[in-house]
Amino acid sequence: MQQDQCLIVFAGTTQARGVTSRLAREVGTNFCAELYRHFLSDTLMTMKDGPFAVNVFYPQDSEEEVRELSANQFRFYPQRGDSAPEKMTNAFADCFGRAFQSAIWIGSDCPDLPREVVEAAFNTLADGDENDAVIGPTANGGYYLIGFNSDAFEPDVFYGLSSTGDSVLEETLDFMRNRGCRLKLIGRWQDIADRNALAKLIDRNAGTVFDASGTMAYLKSKKISSGWQILDPRFTVS
């Protein structure tokens, strides 16, 4: 393990009352809360054998359940702050304060993200003569991964962005380039932000290794085996 590399995994709330995403509005909060539990569990199981430390940052209302989902195998820290930018900034500051030389953030809404993508992102940062930061874009104008070397971290990078999500990537890139940050974009991945993305997750993973995941097992337990079921406006979860 590279003791100077830290993967920050941001856990979403596992409590139905706290789920407010677009996906939850489309398919139901109880279904979505359980789905997010499987997203997080699958993400952590994928990343646990990587050559980097895994630090899990949990919402204040979800510590016990997050620990149980991951069999208490990682280091756990509360998300500190009143807003998403403040929480992300504090998570990076916490990691760099513990002497990590590079840190990468991912959420738990890309449950089929391969560990090799994260390893490649850390390798990008390891080439410190060429790159200060790395970003993995999503198809909807945001990003699923962002990372920095400790001496190049910009604490203000998460503030002042549009609340709409489709311009977050470009605004972030503009900010970092204006600060002279040497950054590299890696391949796109799909975060599961709405029912269209969930449908694509189901269809692209049929017959893959991820088809045996907790996420896919949960969907199958709800009699969901293909994306068209999610897209059907009459879709309901029993």
Give a structural overview:
The chain is built from 9 helices and 7 strands, in the order βααβαβαβαββαβααα. With 238 residues, it is α/β, with parallel strands linked by helices. It is globular and about 50 Å long.
Brief synopsis:
By secondary structure, this protein is an alpha/beta fold. Helix content is 39%, strand content 17%. It has helices at 22-27, 29-47, 63-69, 84-97, 115-126, 168-178, 195-204, 214-221, 227-231, and strands at residues 2-10, 52-58, 75-78, 102-106, 133-137, 143-149, 183-185.
Q: How many individual helices?
A: 9
Principal-axes geometry comes out as globular
What is the first-to-last residue Cα distance?
Answer: 43 Å
Kindly report the spatial arrangement of strands forming the biggest sheet.
3-2-1-4-6-5-7
Following the backbone from N to C, one meets helices and strands in this order, namely: EHHEHEHEHEEHEHHH
Count of beta strands: 7
* Structure class: alpha/beta
Q: Low-confidence spans: pLDDT under 50, at least 5 residues? A: none
Classify the beta-strand content into a percent band.
15-25%
Helix content: 25-40%
